[in-house]
Amino acid sequence: MTPKEQIVALLPKLTAAERGEVLTALKFLGTLAETPRGSGGVKHPEPGDFLFEGIVEYLKKEGLVSGKNVSYDLQRRDAYKQFKLKWESQRMYIARLIKQSSGGTRYNYQVAFICAAALADLLRKKGIFSVSAMLSQIDKIPEALEDAFPGYVSSGMFGFILNRKELP
């Protein structure tokens, strides 16, 4: 087994805190690499962070955030650290939603936007809505979707929501 394969096999056995340490170390190593031209040093989300981009698009559409570097600005918040830790626990749930959409990964951003809108509605009902709450409360997405679309996820009918919702 190659060293890379050994590391990949070990990752699921790590605690959330240990994964956070590994992520921090990897980010530090990434800062040692040369910054690509034209990026202006702005950090961009990882390819799997479509949920983050869906939240950003929702916040933009609602007029809660604006500017050229919204993603970068949100990544500098403490709430983004919580988002990254909770994203790992939500990844399988979101993958199941995408599978139910029958469109494969091409619906990643639409599913993410629907999740963001449902989460915002739930947080508003609970009286804790804020930009930071949107990032730090992603573990409430299953509850939010059930509240917004009762029975759709559990019955495997989530794909029908894509046809009903106004998407970005």
Tell me what you see in this structure:
α3 packs across α6 and α6 (about 110-125) crosses α8 (about 140-150). It contains nine helices and no strands. The protein starts with a helix and ends with a helix. It is mainly α and about 170 residues long. The radius of gyration is 17 Å and the shape is globular. It has two domains: about 1-35; about 50-165, no CATH class.
Briefly characterize the structure:
By secondary structure, the chain is an all-alpha fold. The chain is built from 9 helices and no strands.
Key features of this structure:
single chain; 168 residues; mainly alpha; 2 domains
Average per-residue pLDDT, rounded, comes to 77
Unreliable stretches, pLDDT < 50, 5 or more residues?
Answer: 31-45
Whole-number tally of structural domains: 2
Report the order of strands and helices. HHHHHHHHH
What's the count of strands? Answer: 0
Please tally the helical runs, counting DSSP H or I stretches of 4 or more residues.
9
Q: How does the helix and strand content classify structurally?
A: mainly alpha
Q: What is the terminal-to-terminal distance? A: 44 Å
- Beta-strand residue percentage: under 5%
Radius of gyration: 17 Å
Give a quick account of the main beta sheet: strands, pairing sense, barrel closure. none
> What shape does the CA trace take?
globular
Percentage of residues in helical conformation: 55-70%
